[in-house]
Fold this sequence. Notes:
Layout: H1 2-34, H2 47-211, H3 240-247
Helix pairs in contact: 1-2, 2-3
Amino acid sequence: MMFGNLREKLHNVVQEGLSASLRGLSVNEVNVSQSPSEHPVNYDAGADLLHKYQTEWNQLHLLAEDNAHKAEEVNEMISLLHHQMSEQWKKMDTITSCMDSIPQLVKSIENAMKDMENIKLLINDVEHQLLKLDDVVEEQELQEQMLNERFQLAVYRSKKLKELEKISGELEADHKEKVADLEQKINIKLKERQEIFNQVFQQDMRQYIISGMVPVMKNSSNGGRDEVSLDDIEIEDDTDALDELLNS
């Protein structure tokens, strides 16, 4: 835009110069025509000047075009430089914004470090609580295991008590049966001895009636019987086998 205005100004200056030159030529020609008798007509007058101005105008025109091309190149370079400077300015703005945000970033980092410390303390607390929880779980499992063992022991005890009661009942029944058998055998033996004693008593009574004396059985060393009274006769029961069974 700036170089376009410069080109227009140069073009206007050249046109004004040419116009002024042409006007000068016209005035001179009028003056010559007014006094033809004094000076002869020179038809080549002003040709050199016109050629000079035309040559200068062509040179100026070429220079103006060359300047216009160079101005366009400079304009492109300026546009490129402007674009680059705009990019650099944007980057500088970004860097400035980043620099402005550094204190806030530092503060955020400090807050993050504090939060990390708090999180670390919280993690340590959680680990401690987890260890306590593990202890509680182990204690609970131990208590459950103890209760289960107690229950199993109670079941085992109940089972064994039932078995013991069953065995005790069987032993008691067996014992009663054996006692009954033993009592029956003892009673039979006592009856047999009683019958023998009755027979002996009958014989002794008959002997007493006949002789008035009660015969006494002698030991094997005497080889006979001694005479004793009925008060000296004692009946002994053999209860050793019964006592042994009851003690067992």
